[in-house]
Design a protein that fits this description.
This protein is of the alpha/beta class. The protein has 14 helices and 13 strands. It is about 45% helix and about 20% strand. α7 packs across α8. Bound molecules: guanosine-5'-triphosphate and magnesium ion (MG).
């Protein structure tokens, strides 16, 4: 089973590179705990999933690169080529010399329809190279213009065209202090559109990863490259195959194997504004958690703390709400590692904050004309606010 990755905008392309590099390096990292045969099987599984046929002995990433400015794409292509480990395909990228100036509407309503066919053809070529397609992995920021606007458009297109394939979006939550003045508008529009067309949103917050680099890794001058490497290792350890008792490496059909569906709020629920003020979240209730343990001691780890029914909603039986995947095959250079993928109330506060800030700007009509000018109407904003308020309300009442 193979995955086609679509990397969009500066953020999506820079992270995409690090993810492929982390996957490649990991799969070529021989492990003491695994036999030669196991190492080879692991490498072959990773390759089938993320890389296509070799060109002069160099594997080609199953990826499509999209941006509207050539700089980042060119850097990304050449970094991969210079690594000598793997590279992107010769005709895998699409770019124009016209950015979107951080304007989501421009990415979604102008670049999207204008370049729909070219991007669709590139993706289709990658799909045709797969013997069996497991799904799409779409990487982008949620606050920029090109990656987020165009990314939302492309995800919608994939939903129309490949409705049976899994579409998982990796989205980067902007720094709270923010570099982009309209980042809250862009974020609200991205999330509400992806909510309708994507099967799973995998979220990383830049602030949280920044903290990992500063406090745990002691990096003094933190760059995007540092942040992206942390992200890539987290994603890599989740995406690599697991070793089954029958002695072969395999992937779960749904790579994240957990229930992503959020039920709508109960009828008669109080409106968000009243609720978010009244209800302090004291406890992080989860819908489901997936723990991935790799390397040494995976079978002796004490997991009782994750199994407490009080952690979960009543929708799923505790045995279904908590999943654990274990493999003795360590990830990359780490002796052991643990990754937690959690669908929980964790993002309620940051989401409520972004929606609130965007709403305040919208109420004073700030910058709205920049969006209406390109076809995103006030109604579209209102629909997006309403949808996300419903999501916040649903999570608040887990
Ligand atoms: N983690 C991480 N975040 C990034 C990176 N590059 C940009 N960002 C974040 O992404 C957001 C800006 O989006 P970009 O990806 O730069 O925008 P774009 O998609 O190129 O679109 P334009 O606005 O049209 O340039 C901000 O929240 C940045 O903090 C990166 O390499 N890694
Ligand atoms: Mg850009």
């Amino acid at each position: 089973m193979s995955i086609v990755t679509v990397q969009l905008g500066q953020c999506g392309n820079q992270i995409g590179f690090e993810v492929f590099d982390a996957l490649f390096i990991d799969s070529h990292c021989p492990q003491r705990l695994s036999s030669k045969r196991e190492n080879e099987a692991y490498q072959a599984s990773c390759k089938e999933r993320f890389f296509s046929e070799e060109e002069n002995g160099v594997p080609i990433a199953r990826a499509v690169l999209v941006d509207m400015e050539p700089k980042v794409i060119n850097q990304t292509l050449s970094k991969a080529a210079q690594s000598g480990r793997w590279k992107y395909g010769q005709h895998s990228s699409f770019c124009q010399k016209q950015g979107s100036g951080n304007n989501w509407a421009y990415g979604y309503s102008v670049h999207g329809p204008r370049h729909e066919e070219s991007i669709r053809n590139l993706i289709q070529k990658e799909v045709e190279k797969c013997d069996s397609l497991s799904g799409f992995f779409i990487i982008m920021s949620m606050a920029g213009g090109t990656g987020s606007g165009l990314g939302a458009f492309v995800t919608q297109n994939l939903q129309d065209q490949y409705s049976n394939s899994l579409k998982m979006n990796q989205i980067i939550w902007p720094y709270g202090t923010g570099e982009v003045i309209v980042q809250n508008y862009n974020s609200v529009l991205t999330l509400s559109h992806l909510y309708r067309s994507s099967d799973a949103l995998l979220v990383h917050e830049n602030d949280a990863v920044h903290k990992i680099c500063a406090k745990l890794m002691n990096i003094k001058q933190i760059s995007f490259s540092d942040i992206n490497q942390v992200l890539a290792h987290q994603l890599g350890s989740v995406f690599q195959p697991t070793y089954s008792a029958e002695g072969s490496f395999h992937y779960r059909r749904n790579p994240l194997g957990i229930d992503w569906q959020i039920r709508p709020p109960l009828p008669g629920l109080p409106s968000l504004s009243k609720m978010s003020l009244n209800k302090e979240l004291h406890f992080n209730t989860s819908i489901a958690n997936l723990l991935i343990l790799r390397g040494k001691d995976v079978h002796s780890a004490d997991l009782e703390g994750f199994k407490d029914p009080a952690l979960y909603t009543s929708w799923l039986e505790p045995v279904n709400a908590f999943n654990v995947w274990r493999t003795q095959r360590a990830f990359s250079k780490y002796e052991k590692s643990a990754a937690l993928v959690s669908n929980s109330q964790f993002l309620v506060k940051p989401l409520d904050m972004i929606v609130g800030k965007a709403w305040n700007m919208f109420a004073s009509k700030a910058y709205v004309h920049q969006y209406t000018k390109f076809g995103i109407e006030e109604e579209d904003f209102l629909d997006s606010f309403a949808l996300l308020e419903q999501v916040v309300a649903s999570y608040c009442t887990l």
